[in-house]
Design brief:
The chain is mostly helical. It has helices at 2-14, 20-46, 61-74, 77-84, 92-117, 124-128, 136-163, 174-196, 209-235, 242-273, 279-286, 295-312, 320-338, 362-390. It contains 14 helices and no strands.
Length: 418
């Protein structure tokens, strides 16, 4: 325990060391996080009246971000499967970076849920009325926190073994890896069931909500990992193989194709049948009685996703800068589709036929930006700590970054691998 505490202390110190680019980046994220915290303090004082949500549209920007980030967290499994199922051990260390992204994403998810509660001090009421297994909200609490603990254990154990120059014991992490694969799919499936199980919101009463969630998650999540790996390769000496990026490109292409097919299937069902419950879809895509706030959003999302899919299916996507543009377009498109294009239309019109549109306020936007900045700051710290450990520049026998090194054995500079 003493050595583990020393490991945590050294990691904490290392997170404050870096060149001017790193320190400037961390300063910027800290400032945005504090601005978001100030906006949240205002929300605590004045309540959810500082947001654009009303009794008609009770979920907005916060839950939209929550839904998107659950998919980002689940997508970490797209690096786990090739390594542990198909034995591509050359990508082993990249699994840690993907799972650290999952940890940061789940923390952001929980923060978005907290700010959406309005009265977070009453969160214990949810625990006191733990209606398990009836309540889907209770299932969501279980799977999100369980997935967070799984990834913390896997990442923490592997990084600490690398720090100790010790080969990881498979029985301490391999079973958890395979549980995490199933759990990653479950967190997004349960989130989808949370929506589709609400009978009073016909827009969500679709059997393809869960498959769409998983397909879009396995598109947007790996796209973020692709961009992250390229930033790591550009800003550090850590070797990121092109094989890993091209593997993720293939996953993204297949997942985005499935997502667009499912979206097209749902649009056909909604508009061809002309049923009464398709009114929310008409509001989303074409507007309703002069109300069309979301129409530009959803068509922008469709255009970005289609453009990204076309690019990914051509040889041009082998060029990294083209792949980067496709990934950015896809991430933005899926965020709109799963966020503003999924959450808000279910509330418009209301069950009584009233049309009350939703527009996020600046205070709401600042809170959201603050949570995003805090999550990115956490992930930056995770990567900043992990890469020197994996490279053997920070181990139990090596001091870093003071420049004074103490080697007690000839293998001190070698990272542990599984």
């Amino acid at each position: 325990m003493r050595e583990y505490a020393r490991f945590l202390w050294r990691c904490w110190r290392l997170s404050f060391h870096g060149d001017w680019k790193y320190l400037t980046w961390m300063f910027l994220l800290t400032v945005i996080s504090l601005i978001g915290l100030n906006a949240y303090a205002k929300q605590l004082v004045y309540g959810l009246s500082t947001t654009g949500m009303t009794d008609h549209v009770s979920w907005g920007l916060y839950i939209a971000n929550f839904t998107f980030l659950v998919g980002v967290a689940a997508a970490a499994v797209m690096l786990v499967i090739p390594v542990y199922v198909y034995k591509k051990h050359e990508l082993h260390d990249l699994v840690i970076l993907g799972e650290l992204l999952a940890v940061a994403a789940i923390i952001m998810c929980l923060l978005f849920v907290m700010v959406d509660l309005g009265r977070p001090e009453r969160f214990h009421h949810l625990l006191l009325r733990f209606n398990f297994p009836i309540s889907m909200l209770t299932w969501d609490v279980v799977v999100l926190n369980g997935y967070l603990l799984l990834n913390l254990h896997i990442c923490g154990y592997l990084v600490y073994c690398a720090y100790r120059n010790r080969r990881p014991t498979k029985k301490f992490y391999i079973p958890f890896v395979f549980v995490a694969i199933v759990w990653a799919i479950s967190i997004h499936t349960v989130t989808a069931f949370l929506y589709s199980g609400l009978g009073g919101r016909p827009f969500w009463n679709s059997a393809v909500i869960a498959p769409r969630f998983i397909a879009s998650a396995f598109a947007a999540g790996p796209a973020i990992i692709i961009l992250t790996l390229q930033v790591i390769r550009a800003m550090t000496t850590y070797p990121v193989a092109d094989k890993a990026i091209q593997l993720l490109r293939g996953i993204v292409t297949v997942a985005l194709s499935i997502n667009m097919f499912l979206l097209g299937s749902e649009v056909f069902t909604e508009f061809y049948t002309g049923a009464a419950h398709s009114v929310s879809a008409r509001y989303l895509f074409f507007g309703l009685h002069g109300h069309n706030a979301l129409v530009p959003w959803i068509w922008t999302a469709v255009a970005l996703n289609m453009a990204a899919l076309i690019v990914l299916c051509t040889p041009a996507a082998r060029r990294l800068w083209v792949l980067n543009l496709a990934c950015v377009a896809m991430i933005v498109g899926i965020w709109i589709e799963k966020g503003m294009g999924l959450i808000v239309p279910a509330f418009v019109p209301s069950p009584l036929g009233e049309i009350v549109e939703y527009t996020p306020t600046w205070n709401e936007i600042l809170v959201g930006l603050g949570i995003w900045a805090f999550g990115i700051l956490l992930y930056t710290i995770f990567v900043r700590i992990t890469i020197p450990v994996l490279q053997g520049r920070l181990t139990i026998d090596v001091r870093y970054p003071t420049g004074k090194q103490q080697h007690t054995n000839k293998d001190a500079g070698r990272p542990a691998t599984a």
